[in-house]
Amino acid sequence: MFDQARFRFPLVWFLALVWTLTAPMGAQEKIPEAQLPLLTTSAGQSQDVTTLNIICEEAGILYDYCDVPDVELLSAGAGLAGREGESRSGFHIEVHTDLEAYPQGTPYKTVIFAIGASLKGMGASGLTVDDEVDRLRKVVEYCRQQGIFIIAVHVGGVSRRGAPGSDNERMIDAVAPSADYLIVTRDSNKDGRFSQIAQEKNIPLTEVAYALDLVGVMQKVFAGGA
Amino acid sequence: MNKGKRKHIWMIMGMAVILILGWNPTDAAFQNGTAEETTAWTEPEGCTVILVGKDASTDGSVMSTHTCDCGVCDWTFRYVPGAEHKGGADRPIYHVSQYVTWPPAQGLKWEKIKDDYIDLDIPQPPRTYAYIHGMFGYMNENQVAISESTIGTHRKLVNSTPSAQLDLTMLTLLGMERAETARDAIRIMGSLAEEYGYGFHDDGEMLAVSDPSEIWIFEIMPVGPLWTPESGQPGAVWCAQRVPDDHVSVCPNESRIGEIDLNDSGYFMASSNVVEFAVEKGLYDPASGEPFNWKKAYSPRETSAAESGGTWARMWRFFDLVAPSKNFSPDTPNMELPFSVKPDKKLSVQDVMHLTRDKYQGTDFDPAAGLRGGPFKNPNYHPRPVEVEGVTYSTPRTIGVNRAEYTTLTQCRGWLPDPIGGIVWLCFGAQDTSCYMPLYIGITEIPQSFQIGDHWEFNRQSARWAFDYVDFHTLVAYSHAIADVKLAQDRWEARAVEMTPAIDAFALKMYQDSPEKAAVYLTEYCNNNANLVVNAWWKLGDDLLVKYRGLSIYDRETRKRVNLPYPEDWLKEVVRYHRLPPQPPRKK
């Protein structure tokens, strides 16, 4: 006979453990797949793009990075036209893409935008908020035309969101409605802003507790590699 | 249930747990830190902190400065009263950016910041102490004082996610509210940062933390964006080193703590993970045979005054000014300059005020020398590196810069009761054209004009604008106008310093009779003095406008006007560069 009394507590603890460990991934839409090569960039020049890059590194996903790419640089494809040496304050390029697998110039298949406005960051890049929004709209439009998969990430939380019309909200407006996939931390979506965009535009949305949880999400997104 | 069946179920559950744990990226985050990035991510070009031990000052006071060099930040000040709290009371926590401001019509920063409540309340102690509050908390009623300088850290350590629940400003406020000594403040800020996670708006930061007996350099770093409170790991890594009592030191946006000896508790304090975390992140290799070095691990900056063309010359300049006998070389890498030095002469409060105004005069890095300062030796033209045709060129970054919001000079004096012993000397705007005004810590309110104003709306009710008004009117004919400013500084600032012993003595007498009366007296004195200085600076601005209008000198007494005299070497260069033709001799 099944010994319920002896088994109840371990089972409860086990279920609680499973729930705890998988909670960040729970109740989410199906995670879409994206392909390499990948460019990471910023929408608003906050340090959240650093978080995004570290997430990619932890997830073992190779990427290229530019904080302020224009359409010309984006269209140069993997390796970013060999311009890594031009990095300076307010303009950074990093090339981590496996250029043997994706030779220089291979068109990007995915672009991830880390949304977060920083006046300090934009100032370092010589950009006003209007400049940044204008740049983003052009880059997003190019991605749509070329069929590049757009992922928008917001990990800055509620205090970086700002009021309607704030710099940060303008960055969200410039990128999120055109994204193919939204990944946000729970407190970034406290007011349901991203849920609403996702619903209106039929965009898959994944909500996580911490930036850390994005590591697992990214591994799933790029599980198929090329 | 038979043993075999139970064993089978346990095995399945165990494997499931292992699989889940194996997937859990927490482990990866803390074990696979990439070690290749050794360059500090941030390029802080902000504040300068000067530290003076009690036996290095002429009067036995412990001093520190914070030149709040920003250019777009909030400059308002306020007085936060002490409070009693019932058991179970909570302290709400806000994310506070050093840089964010709001239009005055929307409200003051320290009210607006409450919109950024982060759903975290921490237990409030039974009593919180009164303090003077600007960008940070500066001094509390126990004479615990703080000054700040951003030092930066490795890119991979920055945690700008909300898992970092405390940023630097909030930490200083909590330190002010709770600390009775400098060591207390360090322990409080360090342990709260470890528990609740540090970063969000800030990364590598330095604080001078002092009381009437000691002054410490406290440095703190976040631990990366993948930290979570549930990880069981500290959410910050920090270290503190005491400046010897007879020494002075400086922090100009560069980490100052090198090798540490945690067995020497009189001089070192640190978080439990200080070495272990560096090893984990590949920032220190114990097998190297080298002793652990805090700044090399967490915030290395490989440059010198000479190599950087003066951009990173503040450290060398400070040590050279206070200890010229040691012949410090501008070629010495900054990381090799000492943690602190015994000054050739003890420093007075006015010496420290002058140090905050230093512009490298007489050195190879003088920004006013040659063409750079124009005909009137203005040191303010190129405070940051300049870019020409895609190439960036170094320019000297001096200790005093006119993007300063304000400068605080805290003075902790152990021979007086706390309300009289503690003084925050405050000057708004550019140090060279401003005036330090004393705010005794025993005051109960600060002038209304200190509590309002911002960069984008001229406001005659805001004290800061009086000092900007003067600074603006020195820019055209700096070498002439600065002489007028110095006269005003002698009249108002030097007089306040000279009067301090008399004010102390009178306040002490009142304090012995009634601490409340002493508080009223000190409040009235500080507010009256501040109002007089602010009014004097508005008038000084008017006078400079009249005197130097149209690149002339209008002499009020003689009612005559002369052209501003240009230096001959400047005129020679103008003639040479433009190949000006000489005028033909006048016909007789």
What keyword list fits this structure?
heterodimer; A: about 230 residues; alpha/beta; 9 helices; 7 strands; about 40% helix; about 15% strand; globular; B: alpha+beta; six-stranded antiparallel beta sheet; five-stranded antiparallel beta sheet; 22 strands
Backbone CA Rg of chain A: 19 Å
Overall 3D form of chain A: globular
Strand composition percent of chain A: 5-15%
Compute the average pLDDT of chain A: 86
Helix content of chain A: 40-55%
Give the beta-strand count of chain B. 22
Mean model confidence by pLDDT of chain B: 91
Shape label of chain B: globular
Please give the alpha-carbon distance between the first and last residues of chain B.
130 Å
Strand content of chain B: 15-25%
Spatial arrangement of strands, main beta sheet of chain B: 14-1-2-18-19-20
How far from one another are the termini of chain A?
52 Å
Please write the string of helix (H) and strand (E) elements of chain A.
HEHEHEEHHEHHEHEH
Instruction: Give the largest chain-chain interface (CB within 8 Å).
Output: A-B, 41 and 43 residues
Major sheet details of chain B: 6 strands, antiparallel
Given the helix and strand composition of chain A, which structural class is it? alpha/beta
Assembly state here?
Answer: heterodimer
Point out poorly predicted stretches of chain B.
11-42
| Percent helix range of chain B | 25-40%
Largest pleated sheet of chain A = 7 strands, mixed
List the helices and strands and how they pair.
The complex is a heterodimer of chains A (226) and B (588).
Chain A: H1 4-22, E1 38-43, H2 48-59, E2 64-66, H3 71-75, E3 93-95, E4 110-115, H4 119-124, H5 129-146, E5 149-154, H6 158-161, H7 167-175, E6 181-185, H8 193-201, E7 205-208, H9 213-221
Parallel strand pairs in A: 1-2, 1-4, 4-5, 5-6, 6-7
Antiparallel strand pairs in A: 2-3
Helix pairs in contact in A: 2-9, 5-7
Chain B: H1 3-23, H2 25-31, E1 49-52, E2 62-69, E3 78-80, E4 83-84, E5 90-94, H3 109-112, E6 117-123, E7 127-128, E8 131-133, E9 137-140, E10 145-150, H4 168-178, H5 182-196, E11 205-210, E12 215-221, E13 237-242, E14 248-251, E15 268-270, H6 276-280, H7 294-298, H8 314-322, H9 349-356, E16 386-388, E17 391-393, E18 404-412, H10 418-421, E19 423-428, E20 437-440, H11 463-474, H12 478-513, H13 515-548, E21 552-555, E22 560-563, H14 568-578
Antiparallel strand pairs in B: 1-2, 1-14, 2-18, 3-8, 4-7, 5-6, 8-9, 10-11, 11-12, 12-13, 13-15, 16-17, 18-19, 19-20, 21-22
